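Structure first, sequence second, as always.
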């Protein structure tokens, strides 16, 4: 179920690529191949904070986030998973999931503002979508 007035924020639309939908969220790939980086956006109108969601939606978001994060860490064999809902630039509630590696270009600092994004090439995008396929199927079923 979605709120009838839900619309993806234009900044998220511009900076991310569509990977499908789970029960609650749009699943978006950050268009930056520097890190494995997926964003969950609850399809709810005018929601800025997790506590603005119903209790049922909060629980569903936690299920989807946990499923996604665990799967990303297993798939990419990262050293740390960063999960964040900042909202300073985009007020619409969205939850970043970024796999980090010791020695990556921003380690150990946050990834924001460390370097210019490196957009996916067509072949790179196809490869990451194929690699993520089974994980995305699992998240969509959470």
């Amino acid at each position: 179920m979605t709120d009838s007035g839900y619309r993806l924020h234009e900044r998220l639309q511009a900076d991310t690529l569509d990977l499908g939908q789970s029960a609650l969220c749009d699943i978006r790939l950050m268009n930056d191949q520097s890190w494995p980086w997926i964003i969950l956006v609850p399809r709810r109108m005018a929601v800025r904070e997790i506590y603005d969601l119903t209790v049922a939606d909060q629980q569903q978001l936690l299920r989807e986030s946990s499923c996604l994060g665990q799967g990303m860490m297993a798939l990419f064999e990262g050293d740390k998973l960063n999960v964040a809902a900042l909202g300073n630039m985009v007020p619409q509630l969205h939850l970043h999931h970024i796999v980090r590696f010791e020695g990556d270009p921003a380690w150990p600092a946050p990834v924001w503002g460390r370097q210019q994004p490196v957009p996916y090439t067509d072949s790179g995008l196809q490869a990451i979508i194929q690699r993520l396929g089974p994980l995305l199927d699992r998240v969509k079923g959470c």
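Margin note: The chain has one domain: 10-99+115-135.
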